[in-house]
Amino acid sequence: MELYKHLYQFFIKFPNFTTSACLQALRRNYVILTLLLCLNFINVTPAVAANLSSDLLKQPATEITVSLGNAANELKFEPNHLELLAGKRYNLRLTNPSQLKHYFTAKDFADGIWTQKVEAGKVEIKGAIHEIELKPDGEAEWVFVPLKSGTYGLRCPIAGHTQAGMVGEIVISN
């Protein structure tokens, strides 16, 4: 009820202020509030934010190789457990030595990182990445910086692959 009184007084004092302008102001404030809440939820510390400056791109990336399957066509990630540090730059090299197509799917992990690029063949992709498909003998590089600590599931969502054990875990610590 108190809110309505304030809005009524506002429109009485400022009759030229249109409802459309009021809605625009409310939308703008809503967007700003939403962005602030998102930054709070991903738990970006000042130290992590400072590392995301241009100096971070000069930092050599720690290279990690993960095989999706193997030459014997076993359905597994090798290794299936990754431990990463928030604020550190990584180059994840993904290989698929098997004769089957596989996916590297870790959506919650991907939502908590900053992706610099994904490179496969002569193609470089930038922006939000949630899953990478590797065809037989395929390779890709994923350069990123973890921002949010936590434990995240990794899997290959192809029918039967997850159930057969093609799962893993990614742990990000501060």
β-strand number: 11
Outline the low-pLDDT stretches: 29-39
Tell me the span between the first and last alpha carbons: 45 Å
| Oligomeric state of the chains in view | single chain
- The level of helicity is 25-40%
The gross shape turns out to be globular
Rg computed from alpha carbons, rounded to a whole number of angstroms: 23 Å
- Which structural class do the helices and strands define? alpha+beta
Spatially, the strands of the biggest sheet line up as: 2-1-4-9-6-7
Mean pLDDT: 81
Briefly characterize the structure.
By secondary structure, the chain is of the alpha+beta class.
Would you kindly provide a written description of the structure presented here, covering whatever features stand out?
With 174 residues, the protein is α+β, with helices and mostly antiparallel strands. The protein contains 5 helices and 11 strands, in the order H-H-H-H-E-E-E-E-E-H-E-E-E-E-E-E. The chain has helices at 2-13, 19-41, 46-51, 54-58, 107-111, and strands spanning 62-68, 77-78, 81-85, 90-95, 102-105, 113-120, 123-125, 131-134, 139-146, 150-155, 167-173. The strands form 3 sheets. Strands 2-1-4-9-6-7 form a 6-stranded mixed sheet. The chain has a 3-stranded mixed sheet with strand order 3-11-10. The protein has a two-stranded antiparallel sheet with strand order 5-8. The longest helix has 23 residues, at 19-41. It is globular, with a radius of gyration of 23 Å. The model is unreliable at 29-39 (pLDDT under 50).
